[in-house]
Amino acid sequence: MELTELKFACLDTETTGLSPAEGGKVCEVAVSVSQNGRILQEFSTLINPQIPISPAVVAIHGITNQMVASAPVFADIIPQLTGMLDGCVIVAHNADFDLSFLRAEFEACGMRFPPCSVIDTLKLARKSGRFACNRLGSIAQQLGINCEGWHRAMADTKMAEQIFYYFLTTLHKHGVHTLEQLDRFQQKRWPDLIGCLKESNV
Fold first, then answer.
1. What angle in degrees, to the nearest 10, is found between the helix axes of 121-128 and 153-172?
2. What is the pairing mode between strands 38-46 and 88-92?
3. What is the Cα–Cα distance from 74 to 47, expressed in whole angstroms?
């Protein structure tokens, strides 16, 4: 499918730990839906994880137990989140991390996370070989993107979104016009694929 026809839901989560398998929970989520670079919808909320957030984790993202005490629980935001993701390609930086938490939260609520195609800006960055460091904020700084608020969900979402559209613009110049082609560029080295595209003209 042509990239210009698609809606992209860029998302990020902040969590109480490093893994849902070890009891980590989502304590903030943000989503920005766009098409051709035009923002269609945005959503961001703190989540009450119903478990304590340790001081070590608070030091990373700044979300305290007091901040989430009156926030909705994850089950409360599932309808809005599902509605926003419907028909979208998910975009995230280190998508496996965020999606593992979201899938676990949906499962804990007796629901299945909606199946979606996924584009990972971390994978695109790694396969491009263009950055000295592939951390979200480091890429943003290298591209001149504002990284104020790094490690809060909406700030990270907007950074990843701008990085994603940088990649789209760059790859479009090399003949990448479909989701299938874009997916290849997060799986294999860009120089190899660019050569193949020129030779095959697909």
1. 50
2. unpaired
3. 6
SS3 90: strand
Helix, strand, or coil here: 96?
A: helix
Q: Tokens 């299938």 label which residue?
A: 180
Structure tokens belonging to residue 84: 């926003």
- In tens, the pLDDT along 113-151 reads 999 999 999 999 999 999 999 999 999 999 999 888 888
What dihedral angle (degrees, nearest 10) is formed by the CA atoms of 136, 41, 103, 29? 60
Cα dihedral across residues 163, 168, 173, 175: positive or negative: positive
The number of beta carbons lying within 10 Å of the beta carbon of residue 43 is 18
Calculated CA dihedral for residues 81, 101, 1, 188, nearest 10 degrees? 160
Instruction: For tokens 């703190």, name the residue.
Output: 46
> Strand 7-15 and strand 88-92: pairing?
parallel
Q: Which fold has domain 3-200?
A: Nucleotidyltransferase; domain 5 (3.30.420)
List, in order, residues 6 or more apart from 195 with CB less than 8 Å away.
none
Active site (catalytic) residues:
151
pTM for this entry: 0.94
Domain locations in the chain as residue ranges: 3-200
Residue 61 token pair: 């993202």
| 21-43 tens-digit pLDDT | 999 999 999 999 999 999 999 99
Question: What are 56's two structure tokens?
Answer: 């070590």
